[in-house]
Structures are given as C-alpha cells and as structure tokens.
Design goal:
This protein is mostly beta strands and about 110 residues long. It is built from one helix and eight strands. Strands 3-2-5-6-7 form a five-stranded antiparallel beta sheet, with no helix packed on it. The protein has a three-stranded mixed beta sheet with strand order 4-1-8, with no helix packed on it.
Length: about 110
C-alpha cells in the first residue's frame, strides 16, 4: 500500500511540473525544429516546456547551416525558469560548392 501511495505521489509531482511558454522566432520559417531530439510538425510561435529541466532546440533547413539553442534550467524567486526566455534563430545560407571538371592528360 505504501508503494502505491509513493508511486501516485511521484506521478502527481511529475504531472504538476512547472511549465514555461517560450516565444520562438525562426528565419527562414520553413525549417524543422527539434525539441529534445523530437521534431515538431510545424514551427509554432511559442512552445510550452517544462521549466524544471534543460531543453535542447535544434533547427535545420534545406540549404542552411543548422543551429542549436540550449535552454538552461535556472532557479529564481518564483521557482524554476528557462533561460533564455525567448528564442530567435536566423539560419545562414550555405553556399554550395561549384562543380569543376578537371581533365588530366597522361
């Protein structure tokens, strides 16, 4: 009986973890965003994340250099929070190497 009560208390504590809305702005808009290695279906204006642990955001777009942002868990007067409190990512276009044909005479 004690174990069941302990398990229920642990589940309730996890379910009540503090959440934080993180505004998200990406340039370009047609990128894939991964939150803790899981891809999002689309790029939202904000994401709702647990504030009691860090998160990794990874941004990938065709023809662009990928980018990563780590949201750290910090403690403040109100409890747990994520920093930075908002994310603005601008991916940089990657120039493709030009193909050059070289003929070698022997």
């Amino acid at each position: 009986m004690f174990r069941l009560a302990f398990v229920l208390a642990a589940l309730l504590a996890v379910g009540c973890a503090p959440k934080q809305k993180i505004p998200l702005d990406c340039v370009p808009k047609d990128v894939t965003v991964y939150v803790d290695k899981k891809p999002l279906e689309s790029v939202p204006d904000e994401i709702d994340l647990r504030a009691d642990r860090p998160h990794t955001l990874f941004f990938r777009g065709e023809g662009y250099a990928p980018s990563m942002v780590v949201l750290e868990n910090v403690e403040n007067e109100q409890g747990h929070a994520l920093a930075p409190a908002d994310v603005c990512v601008e991916l940089h276009f990657v120039k493709r190497a030009q193909e050059i044909e070289v003929e070698i005479e022997r």
